Amino acid sequence: MGYQPCKKCRRNEVIQDVIWGRLVCKYCGVEQNSDDLELQHDYDTINGSKGNYVHINGDGSGESYSEFNYKEAKIYHAKKKIEDITNTLEITASKTHLDQKEKLIKYSDFVNKELILFSMADLQRSIPSMVDGLKPEQRKILFCSFKQNFTNEAKVAQFSGYVSGHSAYHHGEQNLAGTIIGMAQDFVGSNNINLLQPNGQFGNRHQGGKDHASARYVYTCLSPITRFLFPKDDDCLLDYLNEDGQSIEPTCSEEASEGGFDPKETMARNVCEVRILLFVVAAAFIYIQMRLFGIQSGYADRLAAAVESESYCTSEVRALVHDLERKGAQNVVDKLQVRVAAIVVMACNRSHYLERTIESILKYQRSVASKFPLFISQDGPNENVKHKALSYNQITYMQHLDFGIVQTERPGELIAYYKIASHYKWALDGLFYKHNFTRVIILEDDMEISPDFFYYFEAAATLMDKDRTIMAVSSWNDNG
């Protein structure tokens, strides 16, 4: 609690009302101007002193209140004095570093040489640049999008990791993922133009985008309009920041915005760098050609030996094929290609995701197609999904149409889950009783399989045949 002389009775008993925060005189009850006494009251509280000096190290040395510029210091405690803050930042921008060898630091030095750094950094992170309308974090994201040619969609969580590793971002991938989601939101009140595409649940206007899905479940990529706003031809004209030898996002410094940046000079520097790079590449190419010329005769001898070996191997293979045909190789192959299980993809109304899932399956199914026949079971009349499924010759298509009204036993039950369960039962009944499969592998229309998918379930089928107590085998990875 600080004590100050009262402006009316001049007694040194002005105290602060703890409950209401008012500055009143103990004797006459007159309220004082809190702006005049607020800062001095705070420093009295910190140092526990009623005197005219602020003690820094307890030995009486320090800075006098008369020497300390309260008007300047109060600027940093105010929230509405924008002009004063701006003037202070401009005046003190050139004297912003303390001597770290000094053991005693004046309050005015701390305010003018340390607090100023925080204020300027905070403004740079919080206020978009007049040059491109972006904050540094958004500029890093856009820079990495152009660097990666981010035209194919990827999960936000994966893209945030790429940005963090290629733009020297120091504040955590979670914050970065939130910024990426914010740049992709396109509902009213979010962005004038969303530079990234929102492929998934990116929130809505009712909750201001806070109801967006986790970064592991939503996808994004560059919007088509982004490269029209930031042309590729301008990339070579920009000055790029450099951190630890790594080129990161372009800079929108004050010098660049005021005309101190010379595009011709930058272009000339880039051309010079390209010439040096071409010279290095040419020297390396000449060296490689000389090495290849020196060992050309050795490669020629090896090639002749390889041709002779190939001829021998070809004759052996022909003899082996003739022997297999004579012994009934077709019967052996047919016996090996016994049906293991049917693969059924449960689809509804997402044709884009269904195409990606089908391509992922066909990529690894070709060699074992007869072991794992592929079925698509669609729930509902969506024509895009039906057209997409029928466009593949390797697929058997099934369609479940149930327009009946769902009657639930208890009110409040989720009808959607009842519909899904009904579709699953209908599809499995058809595979088990109509197509006579003993095993079925169930996939949803937004999954991608791994290269060892079929080896895994073929081994699982063998295990289920040996142990009849095993009813089902699951393989699931929900970590992106």
Can you put this structure into words, describing what you see?
The protein is α/β, with parallel strands linked by helices and 480 residues long. The protein has four domains: 14-126, no CATH class; 136-257, Alpha-Beta Complex (Topoisomerase II, domain 5), CATH 3.90.199; 298-335; 337-466, Spore Coat Polysaccharide Biosynthesis Protein SpsA, Chain A (Alpha-Beta Complex), CATH 3.90.550.10. The protein is 46% helix and 10% strand. The chain is built from 16 helices and twelve strands. The chain has helices at residues 34-47, 70-74, 82-92, 107-126, 136-148, 156-166, 173-184, 226-229, 254-257, 263-294, 296-326, 329-336, 351-365, 383-390, 415-434, 453-466; strands at residues 14-16, 23-25, 53-55, 62-64, 154-155, 219-220, 240-243, 246-250, 342-347, 374-379, 395-400, 440-444. The chain has a four-stranded parallel sheet, with helices on both faces. Strands 1-2 form a two-stranded antiparallel ribbon. Strands 3-4 form a two-stranded antiparallel ribbon. α6 packs across α7. The protein is flat and about 100 Å long. The two termini are 56 Å apart. Mean pLDDT is 76; it is low at 14-21, 34-68 and 254-261. Keywords: ATP-binding, DNA-binding, Glycosyltransferase, Golgi apparatus, Isomerase, Manganese, Membrane, Metal-binding, Nucleotide-binding, Signal-anchor, Topoisomerase, Transferase, Transmembrane, Transmembrane helix. It is a single-pass type II membrane protein. It is found in: Golgi apparatus membrane. The chain crosses the membrane at residues 274-293. Its EC number is 2.4.1.101.
